[in-house]
Amino acid sequence: LNSPTRYFLPSPHAPKPSKPTDPARSPAMESAGNDRRDAALGSLAVLPDELLCAIVDLLQPTDIGRLACVSSVMYILCNEEPLWMSKYLSVGGHLEYKCSWKKTTLSRLSLCSGNSELEQKARHFDGFNSLFLYRRWYRCFTTLSSYSFDNGHVERKDDLSLDHFHSQYDGKGPVLLGKLAETWPARTKWTIQQLVHDYGEVTFRISQRSPKKIIMKLKDYVSYMELQHDEDPLYIFDDKFGETTPALLEDYRVPHLFQEDLFGVLDYEQRPAFRWLIIGPERSGASWHVDPGLTSAWNTLLCGRKRWALYPPGRVPGGVTVHVSDEDGDVDIETPTSLQWWLDIYPHLAEHEKPLECTQLPGETIFVPSGWWHCVLNLETTVAVTQNFVNQSNFEHVCLDMAPGHCHKGVCRAGLLAVPGKSVRDIENHPAGTMSAWNHNDMTRAEKRLKGSGSVRASNSANQCASFEFSDVHESLENQVFSYDIGFLSQFLEKEKDHYTSVWSPTNPIGQREAREWLRRLWVLKPELRGLIWKGACLAISVDKWYACLEEVSACHSLPPPSEDEKLPVGTGLHCFRQCD
């Protein structure tokens, strides 16, 4: 065992590890035939398997190899594929999948001297059952091919006029549109086979819960898709595909309903990521989230089927926790994987607690309004393209989300759960025409709690018991009803926070200087929208305070007042504040 390459080799005298309980057997079998566990774990037997797996995941690969030699049960836990997937993702880099995550990780870390050492069969033995490992195994091997084709609650339309879209759906509710992509070359060209033929050697970015960047050649990724049995499979989520494969941009066009994008006045390198190529196998998908910066989005599916679940703004889905830092407004969301949510949480929801749902079919485009929670599960291998955008409807919300502080960010995402110490109702206010198919009852939330540290934590557990912890509170919300209206949301801005002296949130879609440049360009290039732009600039960068200082400085130095074109700051914008001081 002196050589690191041997830590991972099954000893000829080691017991054979078992797979989790066979799916044909009842999970109740966990309590029976588990004689091996106590003897193999000793004092550690008091810990649940989930905690043991979490502890093992903290170890380095070489230490996991040593631990696997301790006992038969440790051998099982140390050879779990999700463990080795986690180990690889913590390293990152260029990925070439080698039939299993253990082989892939050991090869990546140069901890095996040859393929022959990795080809030895795993040991098997009886006398150990684990409900935790069984459930995880089931999620890894379950198939979704027979999933319901029902239409769900989201309205389906062939197409809409721009006026109809703005009046009925933009900023109000999701809609599925069937004919927006009919003439796209991508409808016939974006099959897995054709994409591999045309772009197999091109490297794409992979999305996964990993701090490290993962990239793969398309041909290697498709090979991985065919071989893997992961609970949360890797999927391509590449915002740079237009640069690496510009020909793909010629295969589709932004639908006429979504062509207004106010971020478009920025240079390409200044604007936030806004378009993604998405390719993923069955069981992959996007867990619960609100799109970055409260932007809106459209998503067109070219092949396969996707299952969508959506909640309106302010409604935290069951099993999801929202954290907002009181220091910099950083937003972090804890959520189960998409598949785990559908299998473990969704079945326990009462009818009135369930989300809006729909199955998206090839050729269909779904519109997701600003602030809406959504979760996506691929029912089979899918190829899609999506873009986020800022238009006149969501402009003020995007600006509000850039403002310093954390209170308003919590309320935008978690509604009145963000207000502690009050008995409030979390009620969504949507036009009946948009939500008529969804009878969503009012839901009383649990009593709110105040946390001394000031951090924000909003959650909805599987049984819908919710809590929110906050520092600053508004005293006039006893009978208020949550609304996504900008007037309601802006009252949660922390007035003492200033754009020029406060920390800029790392989850804002663009940087502080870029935000000022964006608003200034809009002011100059879109004079017809100056009323709206001024409102947004007051929310995002306190431009009203800046302009008041500018007028004061001008008067003090007997200078002419600023012209209409000079009402927004250029550069840092700090000079006027220093003069006023």
Automatic annotation (TrEMBL):
Domain JmjC residues, every copy: 243-406
Molecular function per GO: metal ion binding; oxidoreductase activity
UniProt-annotated stretches for the region Disordered: 1-34
Cellular localisation: Nucleus
Annotated GO CC locations: cytoplasm; nucleus
Pfam families xrefs: Cupin_8, F-box-like
Top-rank taxon, per record: Eukaryota
UniProt key word Oxidoreductase: yes
Keywords tagged on the record: Iron, Metal-binding, Nucleus, Oxidoreductase
Ranges of residues in domain F-box: 41-87
PANTHER family the record matches: ARGININE DEMETHYLASE AND LYSYL-HYDROXYLASE JMJD (PTHR12480), JMJC DOMAIN-CONTAINING PROTEIN (PTHR12480:SF34)
UniProt record similarity statement: Belongs to the JARID1 histone demethylase family.
Name of this chain's protein: JmjC domain-containing protein
Organism: Aegilops tauschii subsp. strangulata
Lineage: Eukaryota, Viridiplantae, Streptophyta, Embryophyta, Tracheophyta
